[in-house]
Amino acid sequence: MGLLENKVAIVTGAGGGIGRGIAQRFAREGARVVIAEVDGARGADAAAKIKEAGGEAIFVECDVANEAQVEDAFQRCLREYGTLDVLVNNANAGRGRGTQGLPFLRYTADAWNEYMRANTSAIFYTTHRAAQIMCAKRAGCIINVSTNAVVRVHRRSIAYDSYKGLVDVFAMALAIDLAPWNVRVNVIRPGLIGTTGYEQTPEDVRARRASQVPLGRYGFPEDVAWAAVFLASDDASYITGQGILVDGGLLTQGRTPAGELNLPVVTPENIDELFPLEQPARR
User: Choosing from 115, 160, 163, 218, which is the catalytic residue?
Assistant: First the structure.
């Protein structure tokens, strides 16, 4: 028996990256998974790989910013599996790309409005539909995938970071509203995760980025997936309105190693050289 045996889950944006990792882990833990993905080829491949590994999954092509397509995805879930226990809001709606990498003074109102309207509508559509199903049966779990940028923001990512901040507060407010129906709502905040573009990033750049993380490495989708499995499981039945950081300790440190002044990182390899143990005096 897996931790999610007999549970039914919808994972949005599960064609690749973090969403795919969560869907695969859910299936290995016994869940029946609906892959809600706008990219038909990636979504179909994700579902096929789960079935090849012995899991149960279906793919539904779904643009989460399209209310009709969201409804179709939920209807397909109900037809195939009869219920819904877990929703993972992982997908970004993919609108307003004109905001990416720009300083705020180069934003346009149209790009800002497009990004915010699409993404905030998307999380409302999926969550509202899931809440209707879960509240009717007095049980369920909603997990929003956010970012550690809600605590320490990125440069030139104002639209993205602002939206992810909304995702966090939305989850906390929703947790209070839905608690009387025994529907739990939580957030996962990933840090440096190796997803799209990881293999194409030069090795020296990857090493430099990893060196800023206390655990000394990138995270990967399976690291985030384990947090999602826990939150979706009955083991987390008393946890709601919370955010879990999956960032290798990145936000725990006051300064990254690059910001320290003449303070080398102490590791198992250099501790004896930097801080040799004094030998006790013999009597």
Answer: 160
Q: What percent of the chain has pLDDT over 70?
A: 95
Token couple for 219: 């995270």
The pTM of the full predicted model, rounded to 2 decimals, is: 0.91
CATH code for the domain defined by 8-257: 3.40.50.720
CA distance 31 to 36: 15
160 is an active site residue:
yes
CA-to-CA distance for 17 and 13, rounded, in angstroms? 8
Cβ–Cβ < 8 Å for 118, 65: yes
Structure tokens at 224: 């985030």
pLDDT of residue 106: 87
Nearest to 55 by CA among 82, 13, 26: 26
CA 19, CA 143: separation in Å to the nearest integer? 12
* Cα diameter, the chain: 83
Task: Give the residue, 233 or 93, on which the prediction is more confident.
Answer: 233
Local structure of 89: helix, strand or coil: strand
Domain layout of the chain by residue ranges: 8-257
The phi and psi torsions of 251 (rounded to 5 degrees) equal: -85, -10
